[in-house]
């Protein structure tokens, strides 16, 4: 192992390479779940003949699970251990995935929302455990860079989720358009719906099996126990203590808006691209599949950019780099809003290059120096993922308007919400950079 890697994953004579690899694999697993789900807003809208706003309830259930379970997860981890928190997260993830089968048998939309909610209760346990656990696997001065490295494998899982969504779900669904489905009789509609749902649930059942296999590996593996010594809960005093820290308090706000921006940009790239390509004369399903290819391109850029940004953090202050990339993302988003052709889609893809740094860097800055309090601090930052539940339905409501005024596309106008989010993240980067400069002045 070279010196750079050794400084990241070796501390006080302990080598954390194997535990780091196992926990990093979990980052890929929840990346898969996140990004196989984003295109499902469009898929469920079509299958159940719903509006975009109704389909966006998938995101409400998905990210609502993160919000609901974050502090219970923190209490569980504090009482037991990071390892047990990760194991319980994997178990809930698998149960939620397997519940897609009875949901399909019911033929109703709402059991799918329940399955998503349980699945993401598991993801909440995973993220509340894994992120601060990674921070403990080496010296504190390199903790933000170590978390960025681990988070670099999250988009690899996301890419797999997107690939599966495009090739094993979207391309195999019946090509009948939303308007054509509206003309079907009840009997025809039920038969078509069940056929499409059988296609949709198959990848979830497979990932449930994979997650259970990962559960068994973590169960038998020897994992470090640093960070697990303090078993006292002291819930309210701990909350008062961590929210008195400006970097943390503002970090929760920034994370809320960042996650909202990320989910909006990746969920509604399908609607944005579909409008662009249908305006060129393409059929709806072909336009959706091509749009998903642009979504995958965005994720590839996101993945590559995260490795680049992890390297840059060796030389640049995290808050400074966060501010620079947030401003760039806001500028690109203006292009998404005002360009009504393929260039707007190019700008939307480019936003992902800027987003790659944001989640782990906000996380690392907010939790730095917290010690045992990081478990509850992590829960607050995971609860902030609620931004991915609240903001996308707001954007979907704007998209359902079709046009703003006489002719301006509502899907373009809806990206004013991600623009606002990136301004908030830029503000957080500026604030933390200013405080870090003052600390060493």
Task: Please provide a written account of the structure.
The chain is mostly helical and 441 residues long. It has a single domain, classed as Growth Hormone, Chain: A (Up-down Bundle). It contains 23 helices and 4 strands. Strands 1-2 form a two-stranded antiparallel ribbon. Strands 3-4 form a two-stranded antiparallel ribbon. Helix 2 runs antiparallel to helix 8 and helix 5 runs antiparallel to helix 20. The longest helix is centred in the middle third of the chain and has 35 residues. The N terminus is likely disordered.
The overall number of domains is: 1
Superfamily (CATH H level) name: MFS general substrate transporter like domains
Give the strand content: under 5%
The N- to C-terminal Cα distance equals 35 Å
Specify the CATH class: Mainly Alpha
Ranges where pLDDT stays below 50 over 5 or more residues in a row are: 1-6
Number of extended strands: 4
CATH topology: Growth Hormone, Chain: A
Helical residues, percent = over 70%
- Placed side by side, the strands forming the largest sheet appear as 1-2
Q: Return the string of H and E elements.
A: HEEHHHHHHHHHHHHHHHHHHHHEEHH
The profile of the biggest β sheet is: 2 strands, antiparallel
């Amino acid at each position: 192992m070279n010196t750079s890697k050794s400084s990241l994953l070796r501390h006080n004579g302990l080598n954390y390479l194997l535990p780091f690899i196992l926990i990093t694999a979990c980052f890929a697993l929840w990346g898969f779940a996140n990004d196989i789900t984003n295109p499902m807003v469009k898929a469920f809208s079509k299958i159940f003949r719903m509006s975009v706003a109704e389909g966006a309830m998938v995101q409400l259930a998905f990210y609502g699970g993160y919000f609901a379970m974050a502090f219970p997860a923190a209490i569980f981890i504090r009482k037991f251990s990071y390892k047990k928190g990760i194991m319980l997260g994997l178990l809930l993830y698998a149960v939620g995935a397997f519940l897609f089968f009875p949901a399909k048998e019911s033929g109703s939309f709402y059991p799918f929302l329940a399955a998503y909610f349980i699945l993401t209760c598991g993801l909440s346990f995973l993220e509340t455990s894994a992120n601060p656990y990674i921070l403990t696997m080496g010296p504190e001065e390199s903790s933000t860079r170590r978390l960025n490295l681990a988070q670099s494998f999250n988009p690899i899982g996301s890419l797999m989720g997107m690939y599966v969504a495009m090739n094993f779900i979207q391309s195999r669904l019946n090509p009948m358009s939303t308007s054509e489905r509206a003309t079907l009789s009840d009997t025809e509609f039920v038969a078509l719906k069940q056929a499409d749902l059988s296609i949709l649930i198959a990848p979830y059942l497979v990932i449930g099996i994979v997650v259970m296999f990962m559960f068994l590996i973590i169960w038998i593996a020897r994992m470090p126990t640093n960070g697990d010594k303090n078993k006292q809960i002291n819930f309210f005093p701990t909350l008062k203590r961590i929210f008195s820290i400006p970097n943390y308090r503002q970090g929760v706000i920034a994370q809320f808006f960042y996650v909202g921006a990320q989910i909006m940009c990746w969920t509604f790239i399908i609607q944005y691209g579909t409008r662009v390509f249908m305006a060129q004369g393409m059929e709806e399903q072909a336009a959706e599949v091509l749009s998903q290819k642009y979504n995958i391109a965005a994720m590839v850029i996101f993945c590559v950019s995260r490795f680049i940004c992890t390297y840059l953090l060796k030389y640049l202050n995290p808050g400074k780099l966060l501010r620079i990339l947030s401003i760039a993302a806001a500028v690109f988003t203006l292009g998404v809003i005002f360009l009504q052709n393929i260039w707007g889609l190019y700008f939307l893809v480019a936003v992902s290059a800027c987003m790659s740094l944001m989640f782990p860097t906000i996380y690392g800055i907010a939790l730095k120096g917290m010690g045992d309090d990081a478990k509850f601090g992590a829960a607050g930052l995971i609860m902030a993922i609620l931004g991915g539940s609240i903001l996308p339905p707001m954007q979907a409501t704007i998209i359902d308007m079709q046009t703003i005024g006489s002719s301006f596309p509502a899907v373009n106008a809806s990206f004013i919400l991600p623009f606002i989010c990136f301004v908030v993240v830029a503000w957080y980067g500026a604030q933390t950079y200013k405080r870090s400069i003052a600390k060493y002045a």
